[in-house]
Amino acid sequence: MLLKNLSKKEIKEISAQVAPKLVTHPAFMFYCKNGKNRQKFIEDYFCYFLGKWNKNELILTNENRDIIVTLVDINEFHTKDKGMGAKKIKKYKNPYANIQYHQGNIFYLAEIVAPAYINTKIMTVYATLKNADIVEELAKEAIKLSKEQNFMIVYETFSKKSNAIMGELGFETAYEKQFQGTQYFETIMTYYENDMSKPAKLIEDFKPILIDEEPEEGEDGEENE
Fold it and tell me: What number of CA atoms fall less than 13 Å from residue 181's CA on the CB side?
């Protein structure tokens, strides 16, 4: 179902429900390498980003509201994080740097595969494969919205395991490569039903944007100043 105009209380409740189920999610394992601190980080992540995208972007969830799918306009996906709410996520210096690093690469890849004249939303699925059936239903709902509102979906994932599900729904793989220096596979898939013979331009040569040096993470889970 589509979430609309969530209150701060609802965002906090949903964030608390989602966080414990995503501690082994590949993206969050990359963002926050300290396992002891990860659940709290995930909760703060959703408190911020659900609040940021709540009014103007599309947020889907299941009946229990513990699985999240976001569809964010390409021009709003990798923007400056500001305001009081951003302080909670920025306090995790190393994980926050990883978020910026990852989002920047996703944005760059999405700009390549999505023609400039087509409205485009970047889709992220916050769930594990244990919930494959629910993920498929939410992906179908996202496809329905893309048809109704005429936008291309650029699906991004750090795992190849869900590619088969998306492929069966009509998504085309545009990019699939091991993320530099990690165990994760960055995958970009596209969906667009309107008349376009090849909506995804295959990316053969792409080098991720690199951060010169990432800050070290403290032993207690809080990042060093």
Answer: 10
**175, 206 Cβ separation under 8 angstroms:** yes
Report the distance separating Cα 74 and Cα 130, nearest Å. 29
Phi-psi label, residue 46: left if phi above 0, alpha if psi -120 to 50, beta otherwise: alpha
Rounded percentage of the chain residues whose pLDDT exceeds 70: 86
Q: Which two tokens stand for residue 200?
A: 């995804």
CA–CA dist 46, 85 (Å, integer): 11
Please state, in angstroms and rounded to a whole number, the distance separating the CA atoms of residues 191 and 198: 10
Exposure class string for 88-100: b at 16+ Cβ within 10 A, else e: ebbebbbbbbbbe
Q: What is the pTM of this model?
A: 0.84
105-136 pLDDT tens trace: 999 999 999 988 899 999 999 998 788 899 99
User: Concatenated DSSP letters for 136-197?
Assistant: HHHHHHHHHHHHHHT-EEEEEES-STTHHHHHHTT-EEEEEEEPTTSS-EEEEEEE--SS-S
